[in-house]
């Protein structure tokens, strides 16, 4: 039983249901190769999707969880590819760590630039985030747009940005699997990805909520 307060459900009934759900996931997931902290992320993804195939599909850079926790403790921004991620994240949990979320996919200037360059809004949104200096040291959270992840890979590979963590979980059929494979080849930038076509904003939210819970538990242990 966790001693977390901020990152727990707000009622006893809610906490019991969530804890019982996690216990079922732990029992039915079978063997896995994840360490304890990585498993907290994976089981929340399974909990959010009821899909046990994520046991094995989720992959981590060796420093991914530690980098994510440090970024959260520092109040680093989270830049998402779509509004759904920002809406899905718990405001009280983010506020506890002073973390702000950002998305630019629907901004008029982003749309205009995408049309002018015949690119995608997701690409231009990531470029706008770079121009606003939100990507260096931030958490980049991508659950919908493979082109956003491809642009992040390009910018990191070109040395234009150095995010604290890239969460690359876009869902889809065109470039989704390929974008995540490329992200997993980054060596100096920590990443979390879901192999293949599966993914989605809900799973990114679950991963971030897992990091927030781990950050609170770590903070409690440190006193």
Automatic annotation (TrEMBL):
Where does the record place the Cobalamin biosynthesis precorrin-8X methylmutase CobH/CbiC domain? 17-213
Similarity comment: Belongs to the CobH/CbiC family.
| Protein's name according to its UniProt entry | Precorrin-8X methylmutase
- Keyword Isomerase attached: yes
Give the species this sequence originates from. Methylomonas fluvii
One family name in Pfam for this protein: CbiC
Sections of the chain in a coiled coil = none
Q: Which Gene3D superfamilies match?
A: Cobalamin biosynthesis CobH/CbiC, precorrin-8X methylmutase
Ordered alphabetically, the record's keywords are: Cobalamin biosynthesis, Isomerase
Pathway info: Cofactor biosynthesis; adenosylcobalamin biosynthesis
């Amino acid at each position: 039983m966790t001693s977390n307060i901020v990152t727990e459900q707000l009622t006893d009934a809610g906490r019991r249901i969530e804890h019982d759900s996690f216990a079922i996931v732990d029992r039915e997931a079978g063997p896995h190769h994840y360490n304890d902290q990585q498993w907290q992320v994976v089981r929340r993804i399974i909990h959010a999707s009821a899909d046990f195939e994520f046991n094995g599909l989720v992959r981590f850079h060796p420093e991914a969880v530690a980098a994510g926790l440090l970024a959260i403790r520092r109040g680093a921004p989270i830049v998402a590819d779509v509004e759904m991620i920002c809406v899905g994240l718990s405001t009280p949990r983010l506020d506890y760590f002073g973390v702000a979320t950002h998305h630019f996919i629907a901004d008029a200037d982003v749309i205009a630039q995408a049309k002018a360059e015949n690119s995608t809004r997701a690409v231009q949104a990531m470029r706008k985030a770079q121009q606003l200096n939100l990507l260096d040291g931030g958490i980049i959270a991508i659950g919908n747009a493979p082109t956003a992840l491809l642009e992040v890979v390009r910018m990191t590979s070109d040395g234009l940005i150095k995010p604290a963590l890239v969460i690359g979980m876009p869902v889809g059929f065109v470039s989704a699997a390929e974008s995540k494979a490329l992200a997993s080849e980054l060596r100096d930038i920590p990443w979390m990805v879901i192999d293949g076509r599966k993914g989605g904003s809900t799973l990114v939210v679950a991963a971030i909520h897992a990091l927030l819970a781990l950050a609170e538990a770590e903070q409690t242990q440190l006193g």
